[in-house]
UniProtKB/TrEMBL annotation:
The keyword Oxidoreductase applies. GO terms for molecular function: 2-oxoglutarate-dependent dioxygenase activity; iron ion binding. It comes from the Bacteria. This is Ectoine hydroxylase-related dioxygenase (Phytanoyl-CoA dioxygenase family). Its cofactor is Fe(2+). It comes from Rhabdobacter roseus. Keywords: Dioxygenase, Oxidoreductase. It holds the Pfam family PhyH.
Length: 273
């Protein structure tokens, strides 16, 4: 291991000091954006290997005009940590996991799963949705970190948030689709939209029930993003309520019994006080 790699691993493990008011902001608004969480050097190193994995593992090769709205939104590759040891180093970052625990105000967090989300040039919108529609989890103590691997101006389709929407029931029975985009575009008028660029090293955390979307990628470069989904380490598996939750129950929770903690090898504790 080179000295440079040691420095990167130390960065992934070093605690990040949340700015004053970040926890309160997250609690109220359902998301928070944090600057200078990861260095350019670290993002370049791990971004390169994550991109290589996405290229190797991607199976979506249809022309853009033949894809569904969901397929046009991004290339989606999940659980890279199980494919590559260095990808696991990034996914298992204690720095990123501790932020998740602190924002949710819980003792520790488990990994639900990771996913790379690459919006290709000319890639379409990511419709309004709430992630937890897909998850058979009893508690709302879930959060996703969204890590752009490059600076992400508005033309590339950065994540946008409907502030405070994590507390409403609207749209909780909708998958990511044209239908969810149409309904939420009208129903979310009561919520302020936060849509701003991401600087290099800036990341966001958003609650599982917060509604969010992303614009199309009008640039000539792929919008490369890595995400990790965290859950309270004491989370409980709930009875699946739709076909997607049934699939997630088997795939990401190892089919563990309803009412138990998801503590299989698929869902390791990444940080705990």
């Amino acid at each position: 291991m080179t000295l440079d790699k040691k420095v990167l691993l130390e960065e992934l493990a070093t605690p990040y000091q949340l700015p004053t008011g970040a926890v309160e902001f997250y609690r109220e608004y359902g998301y928070v954006k944090l600057k200078n969480v990861l260095s350019p050097e670290l993002l370049h190193y791990y971004g390169t290997l994550i991109t290589d994995l996405v290229i190797r593992l991607n199976t979506l090769t249809k022309p853009m005009e033949e894809r569904t709205t969901y397929e046009r939104a991004f290339l989606q590759i999940m659980n890279l940590w199980r494919e590559d040891e260095e990808a696991q180093e990034f996914v298992f970052s204690k720095r990123l996991a501790q932020i998740a625990a602190d924002l949710m105000e819980v003792k520790g967090v488990r990994l639900y799963h990771d996913q790379a989300l690459y919006k290709e040039p000319s890639g379409g919108i990511t419709p309004w949705h709430a992630d937890q529609f897909y998850w058979p989890l009893a508690s709302p103590n879930t959060v996703t970190v969204w890590v752009p691997l490059q600076a992400t101006p508005l033309e590339m389709g950065p994540l946008a948030f409907a502030e405070k929407s994590q507390s409403v029931e609207i749209g909780r029975d909708l998958e990511i689709s044209d239908e969810s985009e149409a309904l939420m575009a009208t129903q979310l008028g009561q919520f302020r939209l936060h849509e701003t660029p991401f600087a290099l090293g800036e990341v966001s955390y958003h609650a599982g029930w917060l509604f969010h979307r992303a614009g199309a990628n009008a640039s000539e470069q792929a919008r490369k993003v890595m995400t990790m989904i965290y859950m309270d380490q004491d989370q409980v598996i709930s009875e699946p309520r739709n076909e997607y939750q049934r699939a997630d129950w088997t795939t990401w929770l190892a089919g563990k019994a309803v009412g138990t903690t998801p503590d299989s090898a698929l869902n390791p504790v990444l940080f705990s006080y």
